[in-house]
Specification:
This protein has 5 helices and 3 strands; from the N terminus they run H-H-H-E-E-E-H-H. By secondary structure, the protein is of the alpha+beta class. The longest helix has 17 residues.
Length: about 130
Amino acid sequence: MAKTANTTTDIDHFIKTAGLDSKREKEIGQHIGYRYDVNLVPDYRRLTPFLKKYLEVMQWKDLNWLEDVHLGYEEGKAAVFDRNINGWVTVPEGVTLPDNQQDRDMLARELLIKFQMSPHHPMVDLCKAYRKF
C-alpha cells in the first residue's frame, strides 16, 4: 500500500483498523481503494502453490492483471470482486483465512482464477448462449 498522510505501510492495516483514513472515507463510511497505487507488485514470496503453478503453466513472469485484486467483505463475509460479473464472489465456508492482508490477497487471487475457470462461472452460460463460432 502506498503511504498517505494518515496510513502506514503495515500489511495488516485493513485488518487492524476500519481502513477509513481520509476525511471523505470517514464521511461515506467506506474505503476508497483506488486512492492507493494499485501498480505496487505483490510480494511473490507469498504466492500460493496454485498461483506458482499457474504462472509456470501460463509462462508468465508476473500477476500484473491480478495486482489490484484484494480480499474484501460483502455482507460480512470474506469475498473477492469479479469484474467480469460485476459482483462479489464469497469465500467458501471452511476456508481458513490467513492472518495478514498480503496472504489474504494471494488467496483472493487464487479463488478468483479458480472461479473464473469453473463451469459455474456466469460467463460459461453467456458463452454457450452467444458464441458465434
